[in-house]
Write a structure and sequence with these properties.
about 170 residues, Four Helix Bundle (Hemerythrin (Met), subunit A), about 60% helix
Length: about 170
């Protein structure tokens, strides 16, 4: 039994040495052009910019404040207006115009996704501030609604139904 295991181990070792020798086999070489390197560097630069912008798209503290307010069904202390974090215009332009390092389908996909992200971000902050201005100016007389200056339809896209049940 021992001899069989030793023979089997020696056979595996011989196969490993033969497969890793590389002396007799021709190795295929790949040529890397400077255009490929420049494209790769452009892709890395695009993704680094993308990560830095995505990190600052929305302030986590603001979102947690809105969610906490919604969980308490509007019975929490008053919220303060929130402003979107500043994003560099140069970085935004770069993200919306990915360049020639990506194929056409990928470029179109990136443009579409970032346009949707920036639209959603702007809508979130705008709707929240509209809601806060409505809370400041709402007119109620003994629980009855007299005049609604902010239509609920504006808020339904962003806010949770529990929050809207107060209306």
């Amino acid at each position: 039994m021992r001899k069989n295991l030793l023979l089997f181990g020696a056979l595996i070792g011989a196969f490993l040495l033969a497969s890793c020798s590389g002396g007799n086999k021709s190795q295929s070489t790949t040529s890397v052009s400077t255009a490929n390197v420049e494209d790769a560097m452009e892709v890395v630069k695009y993704y680094n910019t993308s990560l830095s912008v995505l990190k600052d798209v929305v302030n986590e503290k603001d979102v947690n404040a809105v969610l906490g307010y919604m969980e308490q069904k509007g019975k929490a202390p008053a919220l303060t207006p929130i402003a979107p974090p500043a994003i560099s215009e140069k970085d935004t332009v770069m993200l919306m115009n990915p360049g020639t390092c990506f194929n056409e389908e990928t470029r179109q996909n990136l443009k579409q996704n970032y346009a949707g992200l920036f639209r959603s971000r702007a809508q979130f902050y705008s709707n929240f501030n509209t809601y806060l201005s409505y809370l400041k100016t709402k007119d109620y007389t003994q629980g009855r609604r007299i005049k609604m200056r902010c239509p609920v339809k504006v808020l339904t896209g962003i806010f949770h139904p529990i929050l809207l049940s107060a209306f």
